[in-house]
Amino acid sequence: MPKDPKILWNAKDHPEIGSGYGIMGKHLLPRLADKYGKKNILIFAPVFNNQRIEYWNGMKVLPGPRQDFSDDIACRYYADYDCTMLLQVGDFLGLKALPEAAAKDEVVWVQWAPWDYWYLPPPSKALMRYPVMIVPFTAYGEQKFRDLGLENVHEKVWIGLDLDIWKPIPRAELAKTMKKLRFEEDAWNILIVQANQQRKYLQETIHGIGAFAEHNPDVKLRIFLHTNVDGREANLAVDISYMGLIDTTQVMDQFLIITGGVSEEDMVEMFNCADVVMDVCYEGFGLSMTQAQAVGVPVIGLLEGPMQELVSYGIACPPTHVDHTIDFGRPVAGADSIATGLQSLYTDGARKVDHRILSEDFNWDKIAEEWFDVIKEVHEMREKFTLYIPEPSEELKKKARTYIEVAAS
Amino acid sequence: MKIVWLQDLDPMTHPGGAQFNDREKIISGIRRGHDIDIMLPPGDDNRFDKVDATIISNSTAFSTDIFKAIQEAGPYIYFIHDYSPLCKVRLYYPQQEKCRSCYRREPWLPVLEGAALRIWLSQLHKDAWMHAMPELSGMPYMLNPSTIDLTQFWDMENERSGTIAVDSGMGFKGRPLFFEWAKAHPGEKITLVGPIEQQGQAEVPDNINVLRTVHYSKMNELYNQHVTFLHIPENPMPFDRTIVEALLAGCKVVTNENVGAMSWPEIASGDRKAIIALMEGANGEFWDGVEGVLS
Fold first, then answer.
1. Cα distance between residue A47 and residue A13, in whole Å
2. Which of A60, A350, B125, B156 has the greatest number of CB atoms lying within 10 Å of its CB?
3. A vs B: CB pairs below 8 A
4. For position A195, what pLDDT does the model report?
5. What residues in B contact A382, CB-CB < 8 Å?
């Protein structure tokens, strides 16, 4: 492979942002920099970016502060900085400039991609042929991409966890956090960490908890909602009130949600305080599920999607219908399905598996090694199939002009 | 000995220098009492542990599974004709600095190292390989020249004029330099045997007359019509049989330091008797070397 691969990382969020995409950059990029050199890793993460070049852990962060994919800007940076590979992270159906550039072989495009579509219109399937490689977030996604007949699908590479911090902490050491969350030792403490977006179906989750609470009036419930309560699509306060959960629900300080003032270490403590984590929607990955597993907390998730591959300790709720009002559709677990899942976990428990077994495969060092293999494979593939024939060395050219005459005798 | 001989193309029927060379070696081996089984692609990975040895000749069309089976089965000889598997552009090996860290080293060096014997066509050919795989330099090897049909080429003592070139219109045989030489010698009439690879808009110099294809049996006659044989490649040629053909046909040869045949003193001398002796001894020496490492 080329001695100096030069990789342009393009995720929406800066590595310092606590979102899934931010966390992916935060942990993978330094490992890529160690392997290939800091000057060979460029970061273009347009959301909330400043209009100047900055440096993060020695890597150049390129400006371009629009709040969309900004793939046209990414393509320009790719060319200007003479990159050898663009690693685009996330959903790629909104991209326009990048597929065009890839079709003209101007960009070597690798997509680390979630699968969270229920159906795809044909133009979207056509778009997926343009990356030289799609690296799915999950084995579930990998199968779905392959089922489309795509030949550029790599084996999945999971999103990792920082296992130095994501591990069980004895509850006795977390009194302050318990108090902050309004969790109690004798309560069943439910944690929900999700953005308030339609595709997360938080309203259904709240209604499901409400149904469980109604059926189990003697169960002391405590709920912590780490989300923006009044989102673009729904004001969850209405649902919380309607389901009679006002007194049992605490929400994260909304200022911290907006400004990103919650560190990963804070999140680890929050997860450790919970008795159950809920993530009941059709996820492209579901980072809160693996985070819960790492600290030994069971998960209530959706049966359809990657839950079965990522979660060994929890209950899966079957979907009850498909929401066709959302782009590409989503299977949804209605309130009854969620309430049944909660009931099942509360009453019967779930088989507990040693968290260390669950977590090893999410080690960021292991994930990084998988990415090194992908990068090597992509570069070798390009080298292998390029039609470019290199020039002979200068030494050979010099020898070529040293003529020798031999007469037959 | 029972031997499997790996070749991309059937050497007993296909034309081409490598195929002819292999054919001569195989026939010579059979005459020495060896039982030689030619294996063509895709190959059969169950064969190798049923024979005494494998000889890997031109083998670009075989899978890595076949190579793995060969390595696991037993002794094998690597009979190298060009720059495969060292270089993706096997005929255009650029011998650049970056070749020393080519990705192909990692999968293929162990295969080359594991051979009981490595056979190159000339010292230049071997030196070019050592540029990217110096690890092979201390290992058992043999240099064996590519053989030609000695009955086909001789001096007909004709009237001669002009210059002849063979395949110099191909990039890997030095087309740019060939055109440059032709332009620098505008009064010289040049016959080019073989096609011209048209890259870009380079014009063919007016003093080049192109004969796209000439039957091999007619080549001696054509050599004998010309004074000079011109061959000036920019990439390192493992051997280049046309040099030997032209000398035996009585041509003066104008070439350069990128031609493997010229690293054989017998050929560089132009002495046809020495050249013939070298060619006649090549097959026997090949099998002496192979039998020597396998016994």
1. 6
2. B125
3. 93
4. 86
5. none
What is the reported pLDDT for A50?
64
Give the type of residue at B167: D
**Angstrom distance (rounded) from CA B243 to CA B80:** 19
* CA pair distance A168, B201, nearest whole angstrom: 70
Q: Report the C-alpha gap between B248 and B242 in whole angstroms.
A: 10
- Residue-wise pLDDT for A202-260, tens only, equals 999 999 999 999 999 999 999 999 988 887 778 888 999 999 999 999 998 888 777 76
A-chain residues near B256 (CB < 8 A): 399-404
What are B251-268's pLDDT values in tens digits? 999 999 999 999 999 999
SS3 A161: strand
- A396 closest CB neighbour out of B103, B234, B252: B234
Residue A354 in this model has a pLDDT that exceeds 80: no
- Residues A302, A316: contact at Cβ < 8 Å? yes
Per residue in A94-117, pLDDT (tens digit) is 888 999 999 888 999 999 999 988
What is the three-class DSSP state of A179?
Answer: helix
Does A402 touch chain B if contact means CB atoms closer than 8 Å?
yes
Virtual torsion, Cα A314, A317, A322, A325, nearest 10 deg: -60
Partnered with residue B117 across adjacent β-strands are B77
Q: Does B127 touch chain A (CB under 8 A)?
A: no
Q: How far apart are CA A379 and CA A223, in angstroms?
A: 48
Q: Six-digit token pair at A57?
A: 């852990």
Contacts of A254 (CB under 8 A, 6+ apart): A228, A229, A230
Question: Which of B98, B155, B174 faces A3 most closely, judged by CB atoms?
Answer: B98
- Inspect the interface and report whether the beta carbons of A396 and B248 lie closer than 8 Å: no
pTM here is: 0.66
Residue A80: predicted pLDDT: 94
Q: Which candidate, B259, B212, B219, B267, places its Cα nearest to that of B239? A: B259
- The owner of tokens 């985070």 is A291
How far, rounded to the nearest angstrom, does the alpha carbon of residue A39 sit from its chain's CA centroid? Answer: 25
Q: How many residues does chain B have?
A: 295
Report the distance separating Cα A46 and Cα A64, nearest Å. Answer: 5
Lowest pLDDT segment from A208-212, A403-407, B70-74, B89-93: B89-93
The CA distance from A237 to A257, in Å, is 16
Secondary structure string (H, E, C) spanning chain B: CEEEEECCCCCCCCCCHHHHHHHHHHHHHHHCCCEEEEECCCCCCCCHHHCCEEEECCCCCCCHHHHHHHHHHCCEEEECCCCCCCCCCCCCCCCCHHHHHCCCHHHHHHHHHCCCEEEECCHHHHHHHHHHCHHHCCCCEEECCCCCCCCCCCCCCCCCCCEEEECCCCHHHCHHHHHHHHHHCCCCCEEEECCCCCCCCCCCCCCEEEECCCCHHHHHHHHCCCCEEECCCCCCECCCHHHHHHHHCCCEEEECCCEHHHHCHHHHCCCHHHHHHHHHHHHHHHHHHHHHHHC
Average pLDDT, chain A: 89
